Amino acid sequence: MHHIISPSPLGALDFAKHHCKPKKLLIVIGDCLIEYRGRAKSLLDWGERIVIIKQDGAVIVHQPVMREPVNWQPSNTKTDFSADDKKFIVNTYHKHPNEKMKLTFRNVQMMMVTSLKDNARIVVSGMETDIVEKIMEKPDVIEEGLRITKREKQTKSGMIDLYGYDKKGVPVIIEVKRSLATIPAVHQLRMYVNDIKRKNMEANIRGILCAPRISKIVKNLLEDYGLEYKEFGWVKEIVDKKQRKLF
Predict the structure, then answer these.
(1) Are residue 104 and residue 134 in the same domain, yes or no?
(2) 190 pLDDT above the threshold of 70
(3) Cβ neighbour number for residue 74 with a 10 Å cutoff
(4) Residue 247 has pLDDT above 50, yes or no
(5) How far is CA 230 from CA 35, 42, 170, 195, 212, in A?
(6) How confident is the model at residue 148 (pLDDT cuts 50, 70, 90)?
(7) What is the pTM assigned to this prediction?
(8) Is position 29 within any domain?
(9) Long-range contact list for 188-192, CB < 8 A, 24+ apart?
């Protein structure tokens, strides 16, 4: 790893030329102006930002706040550097689509270059599919005697997560959410129930909204529509097969 603190524009250029080789990760922190031309045009006025040029060519620009980058370029972006006595300039070029981004630094606080190794792939748990699979495996988590007969049943309004029958033989539609249930989820469930009732609006069909958390306002709305709810969540355990055992 190499780094430099508060370089002059020409010092930043010299550092970039000596250390920023292919397959290297470069981080630049400084006060910059950003001009973009491509699918649209944009200008981001002066401000202190973090610029990351990744080993695959991707370029990410972050402001001091917020999660999302304010500007970015995809993998295989080409980058070159230039400078004069007052400015250090980073130019990026990408084809298909044709895009250009120019970052002009009037002050560079820090530059760091390194090379990282990471071949791991993320394994996501706590998704809606995890909750659906748990309900299918053990329907009693919703209510005793429930039988699930179909997963992802198509209706006019969309795909029902789970369809089955309660212990009295009444059809049951279950809509699953992985986090806090919202008002749109209530309307979604209501449309599914109406789709199944289309030929007979007087038919007895139950609709259950299942989520780890359901607010009072959502519960009240469900009750107003004659729908039900069940607070239930499931986070699937991720087993790391490479992890060493203690004993």
Answers:
(1) no
(2) yes
(3) 13
(4) no
(5) 51, 47, 17, 22, 8
(6) very high
(7) 0.56
(8) yes
(9) 188/157, 188/158, 189/222, 189/227, 190/225, 190/227, 191/155, 191/157, 191/158, 192/155, 192/157, 192/158, 192/160
What CATH code is carried by the domain that includes residue 51? 2.70.180.20
Claim to verify: residue 135 and residue 217 sit in the same structural domain: yes
CATH number at residue 210: 3.40.1350.10
pLDDT range class, residue 122, cuts 50, 70, 90: low
Cβ 36 vs Cβ 42: under 8 Å: yes
Same domain, 92 and 144: no
Highest mean predicted confidence (pLDDT) among 35-44, 53-62, 192-201, 235-244: 53-62
Residues 180, 140, single domain; the answer is: yes
